[in-house]
Amino acid sequence: MKSIFTCIFLLFSGLMLGQSSAEILRWKQYSKRTTIYRDFYGVPHIYGKKDADAVFGLLYAQCEDDFSRVEMNYIEKLGRMAEVKGSKELAYDLYIRLIIDQEAAKKDYLRAPAWLKQLLQAYADGINYYLYKHPETKPALLAHFEPWYPLLWTDGSIGAISTGDVSEVETGLFYGVSKPGLSFIPKKYEDPDAKLTGSNGFAVGPSLSKSGNAMLYINPHVTFYFRPEVHVASEEGLHVYGAVTWGQFFVYQGFNEFGGWMHTSSEVDVADAYAETTREYKGKMQYLFEGKWHTMTEKQIQLRVKGEKKSMSVKAYFTHRGPVLAKRNGQWISVRSFNRSMTSLIQSWARTKTTSFADFKRVMEMRGNTSNNTVYAGQGGNIAYWHGNFVPKREPSKDWGQVQDGRYAKNDWQGLHSLDEIVHVYNPASGWIQNCNSTPYTVSGSSSPRRQDYPIYMAPDGENFRDRNAVRLFNQVGKLDIDGLIGLGYDRKLMAFETLIPSMVKKIEGLGNLTEEESKQLKGPLDTLRHWDFNANVNSIAQTLAVRWGQKIMPKVPKAIQSGGETDAVINLTQFAERGDAQVQAAALLDVLRELEEQWGTWQVKWGDMNRFQRIANEDPAVFKDEEPSLAVPFTSSAWGQLPSYTSKSFNGSKKWYGVNGNSFICAVEFGPKMKAKSLLAGGESGHQGNPHFFDQASMYTQGKFKPVLFDQADVIKQATMKYHP
Asked: Which of 243, 262, 361, 413 has the most CB within a 10 Å radius?
């Protein structure tokens, strides 16, 4: 009787909220065809009759775990952040609305193939059904999700947009929605620490594998809780496990029974900025192209701000290349990019259903992945690497990291490079592949591609110390199993400090102008640093001194800019070690000692006492509290060459530092007759405080201890703690 009453109540509530009876019936049919199991760690294993059923269940499960993150990702890509967070987000909203055309996304939905429309409808239905069943969930803005929303994304990485280094602040200043006087330095160069973090992807071939099977190591470095862990299957051939960005309907980084894929970000040039020669003519803006004046396309963009009744209307301008985003040196700057495409979405879905290496290459031939490199491993012992995927053809002699002259067609893109034309490696003789957001020319040791064989714009990436560390390990390692691969991925050697610290100690000790008091203050810390083994450890005092000192000197390290706009971290830091001013380095260390004494009463602070893991609610801004429980973490930012990443900082004057970015979903997979995989997720699956899976993987996370992955349905059913229909 209770269930009948509940159904009647839900139906009535749905009708009151505007859902049609046909819509509600469709949701309930999806629900009947979809089953969700939850395992010991709360990971959802979703099974559907059809692919669309599985997608429906996947989105429903995501909303159960953290609806607010699902919603916020779409608020962002709709360019509606200011409606939730106020006027500070106006510039970013405009930036997004210029880059991502909503009307084009709607048109793509209308012309999408039938199978894709079904998946897109199932995506929207899964979220809307969750809201229908959970009226206690109060959306911040989006009370109803549309099936065209996923077409706002590029290739699965919701934060991955490219604008030729034009920032949203520049855009806001140009269109009058930002306050004058703000810096418009591109974000990628604002924070040296952030610039040197990213992701790691490793592939091991049969010659380096104890079992003779290929293995893959998936290790994205992103904002914590950015992606949950999921398992999705259907009777139409879908069977995939991995990480899904909140609100996606496909696994972004993961594996099926035939192969797996890991994405890392790179500096492949996929967007270019153009300086336009402009004039106003008969009330319209024109730009000069190939000796003729062309009228710019105009578009009115409506922006809303939280608490304000009236919207703000902005007249935006477009050339044949794309939107005008900035003004530099008196010239308007337009941008050519590929930040939204149905092809990209189709490729991301098709990747999850590939059945062989040849099939995976066929999907890669779609060339819709604009933001990522790809590391692959699979059945048959195949391993592969592609540096980028969508790579426009250009004049190879030019520096495409610079703003181009918009007057000439020769500066336009000339089609796309084929898959085999971009930088790649297939089954290298070395037996291994690594990429740590660095140059592809060290990706497989002696089997790596050669720089001289490719245009600069394909790989302007420099080296970093993670790259150096990974190459060192693979060159000296014996044969690996899954646990050995995980151990390699968790190497704690802070290689950058191997270069910086001995030089710093020597230089400071050689200074002749230190006061007696300064020399006395520095003696103990310098002795501590001199005897350090450069490995991350919770008990290390030297690590505390080195990391805090490193953060102070990083902005002072001269950046050697390569053609294409990328800096080489190894060269930069090595040159600083050789030539850096000793007085500057001593002053930085004295500052660190003073701060530690003020905050802790001593400079002898163990790294684990300061560096903590504390999970908090989805608050903006984040509120961490020293008095609340937290866990010691040995790892630090991968900017210093350690392979795992854990970027932490102080919040609101806290003396402890709390992690916010780094290792998130990590997974090691072996592709044998029977799949073997182990995984780890930062904190836990659920985003709800009080849920048993909010922080149940935290202790494992701080130690790098992985859990077994349940992939076979029989194992899932046997070990499930919950079974239900959405």
From this structure: 262
CA 426, 429, 434, 435 dihedral sign is: negative
Domain boundary among 573, 603, 633: 603
Count how many Cα atoms sit within 13 Å of the Cα of residue 445 in the half-sphere of its side chain: 20
DSSP code for 261: E
**428 in a structural domain:** yes
- Cβ atoms of 77 and 157 within 8 Å: the answer is no
| pLDDT, tens digit (0-9, with 9 covering 90-100), for 569-585 | 899 999 999 999 999 99
* Torsion-angle region of 676 (φ positive above 0: left; ψ -120 to 50: alpha; else: beta): beta
CA distance 93 to 116: 28
Q: Please work out, in degrees rounded to the nearest 5, the angle formed at the alpha carbon of residue 494 by the alpha carbons of 490 and 498.
A: 150
Distance CA 46, CA 244 (A): 13
Q: Which of 362, 416, 359, 427 is nearest to 392 (CA)?
A: 416
Residue spans of alpha helices (H) in 510-581: 516-530, 541-553, 569-579
pLDDT of 254-306, one tens digit each?
A: 999 999 999 999 899 999 999 999 999 999 999 999 999 999 999 999 999 99
Q: If 0-12 CB within 10 Å is exposed, 13-18 middle and 19+ buried, where does residue 12 land?
A: exposed
CA 32 to mean position of chain CA atoms? 35
pLDDT at residue 188, rounded to an integer? 39
Coil, helix or strand at residue 646? strand
Cβ count near 397 (within 10 Å)? 7
- Rounded CA-CA distance 180/147 in Å is 39
Task: Read off the CATH number of the domain in which 353 is found.
Answer: 3.60.20.10
Over range 595-611, report the average pLDDT.
Answer: 98
Angstrom distance (rounded) from CA 339 to CA 162: 7
* pLDDT at residue number 619: 81
398 shares a domain with 525: no
Token pair listed for 434: 């690594």
Domain of 555: which CATH number?
Answer: 1.10.1400.10
Rounded to 5 degrees, what angle do the CA atoms 248, 251, 252 make?
Answer: 85
Secondary structure string (H, E, C) spanning 554-571 = HHHCCCCECCCCCECHHH
Q: Is the dihedral of CA 176, 179, 182, 185 positive or negative?
A: negative
The predicted pLDDT at position 533 comes to 97
On whether both 266 and 404 belong to a single domain, the answer is yes
Distances (CA, A) of 279 to 98, 156, 197, 724: 21, 39, 42, 64
What domain range includes position 381?
261-270+341-489
pLDDT of 4 strictly over 70: no
Rounded to whole angstroms, the Cα distance separating 270 from 389 reads 9
Beta strands 404-405 and 272-276 are parallel
Instruction: Please report the pLDDT score of residue 558 as a whole number.
Output: 84
What is the token pair recorded at 60?
Answer: 């429903």
User: What's the distance, Cα to Cα, between the start and end of the chain in Å?
Assistant: 20
Q: Which of 90, 265, 243 is nearest to 162 (CA)?
A: 265
- 487, containing H or E segment: helix 482-489
Q: In sequence order, what are the beta bridge partners of 45?
A: 37, 231
163, with CB counted inside 10 A (0-12, 13-18, 19+), is: buried
Same domain, yes or no: 373 and 446: yes
Domain-ending residue, one of 489, 514, 546: 489
- Token pair 């500096």: residue: 267
Q: Return the residue matching tokens 């160069």.
A: 189
More confident residue, 415 or 193: 415
Give dist(CA 258, CA 353) in Å, integer. 9
pLDDT-derived band of residue 151, with 50, 70 and 90 as boundaries?
very high
- φ, ψ (nearest 5 deg) of residue 216: -130, 140
Question: What is the rounded CA–CA span in Å between residue 153 and residue 144?
Answer: 18
- Give me the sheet containing 278-281, strands edge to edge: 278-281, 284-289, 292-295
